[in-house]
Design brief:
The two termini are 40 Å apart. An eleven-stranded mixed β-sheet has the order 16-15-25-24-23-17-22-21-18-20-19. The protein has an eight-stranded mixed β-sheet with strand order 7-6-5-4-1-12-13-14. The protein is built from 21 helices and 27 strands. The chain folds into four domains: 164 residues, 3-Layer(aba) Sandwich (Rossmann fold), CATH 3.40.50.1000; 62 residues, Hypothetical Protein Ta0175, Chain: A, domain 2 (Alpha-Beta Complex), CATH 3.90.1070; 228 residues, Rossmann fold; 95 residues, no CATH class. It is an alpha/beta fold.
């Protein structure tokens, strides 16, 4: 379930002229019965809202006063999310004859009295803001709005903005809708809000909300997934198509990544996981070999000497923090049992909170072997939103493979991976594309989409790219990958096994040798093919193509290009 929470404005959204129609209420009740949570997000004062809308018990939380007050109808607890209105501001508005109502955190008036409010704020030197809402004027501490109030409500419930469907109609709904995974404007919403919304309903007010919620109950709004590119994850770019990025939806896909060692499998996975971390999707990565121990953006549990505590893992997942579970200290033979005990706890938490959004399982053929059979028939379905990483897809449990609808295969055995996956599920394998992925590439097969895999350049993670840069700058390239200064008569055989050695040798060789390789475009060719840095290669080619350039000047320019990219401070 992608949309675990429905957060809606009151006036102008579910309500028209202050009243909610019975049909809208009935639809809200059906949404609640589906297991979803309802949150009301409004600019109204709580006593006023309780009077006009006695059905507040439908909602798990009420964000009132435009984000200043949080109310839990089940317990009737109220929590003020900001400082109360300063007495000096209240006194100044009364003195200026500005009509207003003061709530627990908000001061409310109407246009054109914002002029008097702004004058008072300026005179008193307060850090306050004015928010508009179709003629209404709300005065709050800076930074307090419906989005911050909704965040506080979700924190209390242990839920994520990535699982929220938000609906609104006015100026004060901009920040709120932008924060939600999907922001919806009803048909009567202001044009500016409709322009920024992901979806605009056909009907207005409560009828528009009911229309949206019927679609939610029908397919969890999957019909609109293609519009939500701001949340998509880029797998790579089609080879030969510079702007054709291949994307996946963070909720509708489960992924199998397969490839031999050193085929680029970990690079492809790191690129996906880094994007999940950047977009604040929570993941739990099961790491049998400690390969992701220092992954930025995640807490790591377990070391080479200490077993990870499942209770500590689950406690960490109560926050939005992602986690890596390092199994190095767990004996190899005990790892499948450890994971079998942890998995139901993760799935139970996901059923309650929709988090972790992704469960990532490295060495899946070991942790979920072909002999693995889930205790419950609902487990394979709950394994949606997972990434299985393996060298041997034919040795992974068919029950674990069942939710997979996307296969990413790297290296020379890519077609074998597709065939092994298809055989395990007794389905037809895709037609061969005839392509073999090179380093930094992968074949991607959408199981329910194109009949033939797509060749893409994978989205490398920044950390992976930095690691590669360190290797090229100071590491040990193979003899085949190294650069050799030979000179015009091949009298030299000076090997540069990395870029730093290249610079050292370049400073020491004679001008004839340097210019010999320059005129043959050897430097740009090496940077492109072996260092795999097209930008550096382009800069070097520009120097090489300068016919009158001296040895001294060309050395200096190529040195500067290398140092700017590989030795400059981050």
């Amino acid at each position: 379930m992608r949309y675990f929470v429905v957060a809606t404005d009151y006036d102008g959204t579910i309500a028209s002229n202050g009243r909610v129609e019975d049909a809208t209420l009935a639809t809200l009740e059906r949404v609640k019965a589906s297991g979803r949570r309802l949150v009301l997000v409004t600019g109204r004062h709580l006593p006023d809202l309780s009077t006009v809308f006695p059905q507040l018990g439908l909602f798990a939380r009420v964000v009132a006063e435009n984000g200043a007050l949080l109310y839990a109808p089940g317990t009737r607890e109220q929590r003020l999310l900001c400082e109360p209105p300063p007495p000096a501001l209240v006194a100044r508005l009364q003195k200026g004859a500005v009509p207003f109502e003061a709530g627990r955190g908000i001061i409310a008036t109407r246009e054109p009295h914002q002029v008097g409010v702004l004058d008072a704020i300026r005179e008193l030197g307060l850090d306050y803001q004015v928010i508009f809402n179709k003629g209404a004027v709300m005065v709050l501490p800076s930074g307090v709005n419906k989005a911050t109030g909704l965040n506080a409500a979700l924190d209390e419930m242990g839920l994520s903005l990535h699982n929220v469907l938000g609906v609104g109609d006015a100026e004060n709904d901009h920040a709120f809708l932008a924060a939600c995974e999907c922001g919806v404007a009803v048909a009567n919403a202001l044009p500016a809000l409709q322009e920024r919304a992901d979806i605009v309903t056909e009907h207005d007010h409560g009828a528009g909300v009911a229309e949206l919620l019927e679609q939610l109950l029908a397919d969890d709004l999957a019909r609109y997934d293609s519009r939500l590119l701001r949340h998509s994850i880029v797998l790579g770019t089609r080879i030969g198509e510079a702007d054709d990025r291949v994307r996946i939806n963070p909720y509708r896909n489960s992924i199998l990544v397969s490839g031999a060692s050193a085929s680029g499998k970990s690079t492809a996975v790191s690129g996906i996981v880094e994007q999940l971390a950047e977009q604040k999707y929570q993941f739990c990565l099961i790491d049998p070999e400690g390969d992701y121990e220092h992954f930025a953006g995640a807490l790591s549990f377990g070391t080479a000497k200490e077993r990870p505590d499942p209770n500590a893992v689950l406690k960490a997942l109560e926050s939005p923090q992602s986690v890596v579970v390092n199994l190095l200290a767990v004996h190899v033979g005990e790892r499948p049992g450890y994971f079998s005990a942890l998995l139901p706890l993760l799935l139970e938490r996901r059923a309650r909170t929709a988090r972790p959004h992704w469960i990532i399982i490295d060495e899946a053929h070991h942790l979920l072997p072909s002999s693995w059979s889930p205790v419950s028939s609902t487990v394979p379905q709950a394994l949606g939103g997972s990434i299985l990483i393996t060298v041997h897809p034919d040795k992974v449990s068919a029950a674990a493979l069942a939710p997979v609808d996307l296969v990413v295969a790297t290296g020379k055995s890519a077609d074998d991976a597709f065939r092994a996956f298809a055989k395990a599920l007794h389905i037809e394998a895709p037609q061969s594309s005839g392509a073999t992925p090179e380093t930094g590439q992968a074949l991607i097969w959408f199981r329910n989409g194109e009949s033939s895999p797509i060749l893409v350049k994978t989205q490398a993670a920044k950390e992976e790219r930095l690691r590669h840069r360190r290797a090229y700058a100071e590491g040990e390239l193979s003899e085949k990958q190294s650069f050799y200064f030979t000179g015009p008569e091949s009298k030299l055989h000076l090997r540069a096994q990395n870029l730093m050695m290249f610079l050292q040798l370049a400073d020491g060789i004679d001008d004839d040798t340097w210019l010999f390789h320059l005129r043959q475009n050897d430097y740009s060719r090496w940077f492109a093919k072996m260092i795999k840095d097209p930008e550096l290669a382009r800069e070097a080619a520009a120097v090489e193509n300068h016919q009158q350039i001296s040895a001294e000047d060309s050395r200096a320019r190529i040195r500067k290009a290398i140092e700017n990219r590989y030795t400059a401070p981050a």
